[in-house]
């Protein structure tokens, strides 16, 4: 049988303590020790749950709900995908054990949705989660019966105990330390209980939001909104990423519900403002790219939910994303080569969505494309990706804003000739994606010629199956 720590109604003390340490930077030996301890405890929990299942198959007595909620709070952070960061302690074997324990817990706690017939196999052959479908089934079943208690006892208390921004805790000092505004902001985010004392809270919140049964009531929706907005406002890109992911699940649930609580209450605007703040946030962080990818993908969904697609307000919101999320990133972070292909990719995405309305920002967007096409590749795969992204974005801009492209012929032509010259540079000969750049540049010329003749230097020639031909 399990010891008192495992059978307690709250988060098991020793397990929670080890989880807290696992979220920090520890030596590999300590990570190994932590993994071994977790595997031992999970194996013990699985054995006990199998015994419980065997004893209660023929009865209708439910497993203690409070104990189940406490175990769920410990198992969910281990069984769930870790998000954009994979901690060293989060191994496939540990995740598999936690998922098996969740499956057994769903059966032993006696929800009728998943409980098998009493004539089924003995406990040694208890079903094991083997694919994503069965894992989702178990999670939805557990969420149906226990998500309310999980949110009430293991999420909301830790977020409501947040340290106010204006409060400074210095018990051994007679005079509060004077801080700059930025230092106060950092300290505020570092002191939060859900981050410092209970790091698994975010994964529990994400699990509940994903698997919560639909439709939600307004009260159930409002249990998630404050914590999600807190994550979006956090200083760390990791928690911002989770805020975006949980917001996506809230939006999906709101759209499926009988009443659009987020839309009717105006909270969609709060989420939209929080997401737009993520677009130009700390691009020097390791997770900044993953955060941008997520926000670029989710913002159109929120905008289309807030406003009727193709309405005036819809266009205004989409254009605001182009201005704040793309042009400002070019301005502030244009020297970050790893970020440029992502920005050019979404220039093309938003240009296609906006259509001819893109002309409002055509000049600065084309200027960025031309500027990057004139950079020297110098045999660098990263710089080649920048050329590919800029060429792709330029082609889409030409297609969507064709009536205005004639005003920028000279700028486009110079950029094309500079990029084309890189194709014949011997230092770039080993780059495997060079043919893709060639094809994109040729497609740009074809798009230009569709609208009107374009004069290109006769010295700029292209190799075809028939030999050489001038582009002019």
UniProtKB/TrEMBL annotation:
Q: Which GO terms describe its cellular component?
A: cytosol; nucleus; TTT Hsp90 cochaperone complex
Xref: InterPro entries: Tti2
**What protein family is recorded?**
Belongs to the TTI2 family.
Q: What is this protein called?
A: Uncharacterized protein
**Natural source organism:** Dispira parvispora
